[in-house]
Amino acid sequence: MTNVPKTSAVKEIYLANPRGFCAGVDRAIEMVELALKKWGSPIYVRHEIVHNKYVVHDLKKKGAVFVEELRECPVDRPVIFSAHGVPKMVPEEAKRRQMLFVDATCPLVTKVHNEIKRYYDKGYKIIMIGHRGHPETIGTMGQLPEGEVLLVENTADVEKMDPSEYPKLAYVTQTTLSVDDTKEIALALNKKFPSIENPKKEDICYATTNRQEEVKRLVKHVDLMLVVGSENSSNSRRLVDVAKNSGCAKSYLIEDYKKIDWVKVKDANSIGITSGASAPDHLVREVISSIQEKFDTSLVYDTTKKETIEFKVPPVLR
């Protein structure tokens, strides 16, 4: 960070609370660190443990090796499955190869996995509202035989469906979607398929919902919104969408302080800052510090919702 003469205009920084790590991310990172302590390095991790390059880089330095497929892992070293969840065939393959594996799937994602299995056992065809190619969607759809879970990404996908083909339907959702977009798709599904079985409890996770609600509140006070998070983080990208849809057109996803567009910051009088559920808080602090170096700022802390949820690590790592 370089020192630049400060301008005279004071910029208000509104810091979102809650923001950053959720319980599932905390647990997944802790599981890799505990595995390294217990079994030494290298520990293999199938897919990025969470979608943040800083977290991944830090764990690599400690001895974690990240791979995309199980076949890249040697049988004599432990492997951890990422927080996003994996298709059923992955742990089955690990058992066949007699590998030591630990599943760091977020318990709220596991809840959705269990839901679709229950629906399937009762003879339902299942629709998943989610993003094609996202590891969570692949993992959830992969709990059942191919073709048993249909993916819809938007209301246009719902319109293409023929009700006569699906007499018994249920739907589930990816946990990191836009709450408002998902409601719209769910309404379209219920309109087209009046007897469709809705999830007993909201599938979108508490952290995603809380962070989106906070962004909706913040945009009333700011003319620029910065969301700290990685490009491949679904929940971070949704925070940008929510901010834009709630009236703050100048809303941007930034990986860290180096990605700040200083022209946009200079033009803003008030700036909202939040972070996705997989972004470490030191990245947010660096963004604030870099703005404070260049401008006189007034920092607004306003804790609206305290999150108390914690997920325990599996007994094998305790």
Throw out a few tags for this protein.
single chain, 318 residues, alpha/beta, Cobalt-precorrin-4 Transmethylase, domain 1, Rossmann fold, 3 domains, 5-stranded parallel sheet, 4-stranded parallel sheet, 11 helices, flat
General description of the model:
- The protein is an alpha/beta fold and 318 residues long.
- It starts with 6 loop residues before the first strand and ends in a 17-residue tail after the last strand.
- Helix content is 38%, strand content 19%.
- The chain folds into 3 domains: 7-21 and 206-301, 3-Layer(aba) Sandwich (Cobalt-precorrin-4 Transmethylase, domain 1); 23-103, Rossmann fold; 107-204, 3-Layer(aba) Sandwich (Cobalt-precorrin-4 Transmethylase, domain 1), CATH 3.40.1010.20.
- β9, α9 (234-245) and β10 form a beta-alpha-beta unit.
- Strands 10-9-11-1-12 form a 5-stranded parallel β-sheet, with helices on both faces. A 4-stranded parallel β-sheet has the order 3-2-4-5, with helices on both faces.
- The radius of gyration is 21 Å and the shape is flat.
- It has helices at 23-39, 53-62, 89-96, 107-121, 135-141, 155-159, 179-192, 206-218, 234-245, 262-267, 281-294, and strands spanning 7-15, 43-46, 64-67, 79-81, 101-103, 125-129, 149-152, 169-173, 224-228, 251-254, 270-275, 295-301.
- It has 11 helices and 12 strands.
Rounded mean pLDDT score: 95
**H-E order:** EHEHEEHEHEHEHEHHEHEHEHE
CATH evolutionary superfamily of the largest domain: 4-hydroxy-3-methylbut-2-enyl diphosphate reductase, catalytic domain
- The order of strands across the largest sheet is 10-9-11-1-12
Question: What general form does the structure show?
Answer: flat
In total, the number of strands is 12
The third-level CATH topology of the largest domain is Cobalt-precorrin-4 Transmethylase, domain 1
Compute the separation of the termini in Å.
Answer: 40 Å
Percent of sequence in beta strands: 15-25%
Weakly predicted, low-confidence segments:
none
